[in-house]
Amino acid sequence: MTMATAHERRPRGPKPRRLTAGRIGIYAFVAVSCLFFLMPLYVMVVTSFKTLDEIRMSQIFALPSHFSVEPWVTAWSSACTGASCDGLKVGFTNSVLITAPSVVLSILAGALLGYSLSLWRTKGSNVLFGLLLAGAFLPYQIFIYPLVRIYAYVSLYGTLFNIITVHVIFGLPVMTLLFRNYFSSVPIELFKAARVDGAGFWRIFTSIMLPLSTPMIIVAVILQVTGVWNDFLLGTVFAGQANWPMTVQLNNIVNTTEGTRAYNVDMAATILTAAVPLLVYFVSGRWFVRGIAAGAVKG
To answer: Which of 283, 264, 276 minimizes the C-alpha distance to 49?
Structure first.
């Protein structure tokens, strides 16, 4: 493209300075949407710093007159989750032990399957991909009872291995779909050149495809961390009481009542539980958009 051509394609004329009815409507819609989603978060945050006496005044939108971090300390270290009063710290450790291997294994397995189905197609590969795709849209509730029976039969039910493999199994269809579509968008000439140079299946995958798929890996990490960390049903069924994740502990804190309900502790515990997925998204949000644009919806 020449400089003249680029100059000709630049928009000409002054920028519109007048507020039209359409623009006012868009601004109003965005403002109302932001208020709709941010107001509950605001109420949760300010309530978590209030004392119970101040909460009883029923001024939920008012800022706390005296900021108190005691509800946060209680939620983390001494809130009761049934008979145990160890707070969310135990659930946080369990969530990390569940989320980290589940995310890594599901992404590696999905990337490997997506790579195989896109560039090393064999007989029946389309049928396998169709079955995986069907698994992505079937409600996983229908698989719970058979999986419980299988894990109980092999004496693995209620263990850390149990909940990790369950998350890997249910995350595999979506991960395979993402990476297959992304690898299908990679120029086939790059793959053929590597084959001509003598690179095999694993060398191409580890030295070429994985480094190229960094944006898609970020997308997969965000999706999996959000899904696994926020999971409640699978953690309740498969993790076992000793490995209950943070979401299950949060439910127990909210539903455990001894005398007066501590709404400030409940709000602090809720924010602590949601902090990790929010942090992951805010840190890598721009990579998420880049990964989606790079091929997540192609194919």
So the answer is: 264
Closest CA to 226 of 296, 284, 157, 294: 284
User: Could you say which residues of the chain have pLDDT below 70?
Assistant: 1-17, 19, 124, 256-259, 285-299
DSSP string across 239-283: S-GGG--HHHHHHHHHH--SSS--HHHHHHHHHHHHHHHHHHHHH
Reading the block at residue 22, the tokens are 């359409």
In angstroms, the CA 67 to CA 46 distance is 9
> What's the confidence (pLDDT) of residue 168?
93
What's the predicted TM-score (pTM) here? 0.80
Q: Name the residue type at position 142.
A: I
| pLDDT attached to residue 297 | 43
Which residues touch 69 (CB under 8 Å, ≥6 apart)? 49
Indicate the angle between helix axes 160-184 and 89-119, nearest 10 degrees.
Answer: 40
Beta bridge partners of 81: 84
* Residue ranges, CATH 1.10.3720.10, the chain: 89-296
C-beta neighbour count of 70 within 10 angstroms:
12
User: Cα 293 vs. chain centroid, distance in angstroms?
Assistant: 18
- The yes/no answer on whether domain 89-296 falls in CATH 1.10.3720.10 is yes
Q: What is the pLDDT of residues 25-53, one digit of tens each?
A: 888 899 999 899 889 889 889 988 888 88
Q: Would you say 246 and 88 are in contact if contact means Cβ atoms under 8 Å apart? A: yes
Beta bridge mates, 84? 81
Residue 250's contacts (CB-CB under 8 Å, 6 or more residues apart) are 88, 91, 269, 270, 273
Gap between the Cα atoms of 120 and 202, Å rounded: 11
Instruction: Specify the residue for token string 């599901």.
Output: 106
Contact 190, 208 (CB under 8 A): yes
Phi, psi of 144 (to 5 degrees): -65, -50
The pLDDT of residue 292 is 60
**By percentage, how much of the chain surpasses pLDDT 70?**
87
